[in-house]
Specification:
Blueprint: H1 2-28, H2 35-59, H3 61-64, H4 69-72, E1 85-90, H5 98-107, E2 113-119, H6 130-138, E3 142-148, H7 172-177, H8 182-195, E4 199-203, H9 222-238, E5 244-248, E6 269-276, H10 289-300, E7 307-314, H11 321-335, E8 339-346, H12 366-378
Parallel strand pairs: 1-2, 1-8, 2-3, 3-4, 4-5, 5-6, 6-7, 7-8
Length: about 400
């Protein structure tokens, strides 16, 4: 009875605080930047911690991930885990992580990594996502934040140098390297330091792709990307945000990725994308996992860094998706020993590549779920760390 009363009281407290924060935001409006915004972020993190503590207790999730405790609190320790670290991104996690928990339930496993995305900018949702990463940590997992340096959303009052530029992303990496966005970077670094727990930070992913993202070679030289990366990492380290695990994640389909490598001292993990579009578009075909990742892996493994597949998935059109998942997961420990982590790309509304929305989800695909479950049991489970 006492537990029920405590949960009711906690729920009422969360509702009251939530309403109070909403009223405060409405009252202060644009003035919410600065101390008031920081207060709201701090309170929200506290609310998240309270909510997720009960969720984790109810789902026994933290207990199921107890084996991860010896690794996840040390940035260098995560790469030494004695089993493959699985994770997921799901596009329905803005309010809660119930969709990922549901995916875990269908796979009969718990995922040590939860992935989210955050863009650069001056909007309230472009600050360090303390609320969300705290919720992930409270659930017993390690956050992975893909930090996308779009430069269109910065306030002209705070960053007047680009206010009248027709293309604010042209030369953007050089501007970052020159320190023009240090106010924003430093705030992220200090908030990351306040979070305190290790987390993956995937900055400017697929920087060698000349089509998709504005921080790519259509707007920037490789040397400028390297200088920007090194500058951001240095700012974080100088301010004490040493809990960030820096993930350099080029696109495997473009062979010039070495030109964008920021250097051994500035990269902790190498990331990549391993997704199979099948025959969904005229430019795509059914690629096996080996065809997607094999040649790239041979080259990046020379860096002697742990490797994480940050986006892992397959569409169903054009081939056998269950067999694709099974083959990939089964061959990981032996053929690709430097790959220490795999993050499922469980996005039901992907509009980044084709003119239509793509659905990468597989939770309702019973054959794929069965194949993945079997592969997890017999493939990328307990393993010896690679010599890297």
């Amino acid at each position: 009875m006492r537990t029920i009363l405590v949960r009711i009281a906690a729920f009422v407290l969360v509702v009251v605080l939530g309403i109070s924060m909403s009223l405060l935001l409405t009252f202060v409006g644009d003035k919410s930047k600065g101390p008031v915004s920081d207060l709201i972020t701090t309170v929200n993190a506290g609310i998240s911690h309270l909510e997720k503590r009960f969720t984790a207790t109810r789902a026994h999730r933290v207990s199921d991930l107890k084996w991860l405790e010896r690794y996840r609190h040390r940035t260098a320790g995560i790469a030494t885990a004695d089993r493959m670290l699985l994770g997921a991104y799901d596009d329905n996690t803005a309010e809660s992580y119930e969709s990922i928990v549901a995916l875990e339930d269908s796979l009969d496993t718990r995922l040590p990594i939860m992935s989210i995305y955050s863009a650069w900018g001056s909007r309230p949702d472009q600050v360090f996502p303390l609320l969300r990463v705290q919720a992930i940590a409270d659930l017993g997992s390690i956050p992975m934040v893909t930090w996308e340096p779009w430069l269109d959303d910065f306030s002209p009052d705070q960053f007047p140098f680009s206010a009248h530029a027709e293309n604010k992303n042209k030369g953007g990496m050089r501007a970052i390297a020159e320190g023009r966005y240090d106010v924003y970077i430093d705030k992220w670094a200090l908030d990351a330091k306040a979070f305190g727990e290790p987390f993956f930070l995937r900055l400017g992913h697929e920087m060698n792709d000349p089509y998709r993202y504005p921080w790519g070679p259509q707007n920037n030289q490789p040397d400028d990307f390297i200088a920007a990366w090194q500058h951001v990492v240095t700012r974080f380290r100088t301010l004490g945000a040493t809990n960030a695990i820096w993930v350099w994640s080029p696109h495997p389909a473009y062979k010039n990725f070495e030109a964008f490598y920021p250097g051994h001292a500035f990269v902790d993990w190498v990331g990549t994308t391993a997704i199979n579009y099948g025959t969904v578009a005229p430019w795509s075909q059914w690629w096996s996992f080996q065809e997607v990742i094999g040649a790239f892996y041979e080259r990046v493994s020379l860096y002697k860094k742990p490797v994480i597949i940050c986006e892992f998935g397959s569409l169903s059109v054009g081939g056998n998706r269950p067999a694709w998942f099974a083959d990939a997961l089964r061959t990981l420990p032996t053929r690709y020993p430097a790959i220490r982590a795999v993050v499922f790309y469980h996005n039901g509304n992907d509009k980044t590549t084709t003119y239509k929305s793509l659905d990468w989800t597989f939770r309702t695909d019973s054959a794929s779920v069965a194949a993945i479950k079997q592969a997890i049991r017999s493939g990328p489970g307990t393993r010896q760390p690679a010599d890297i």
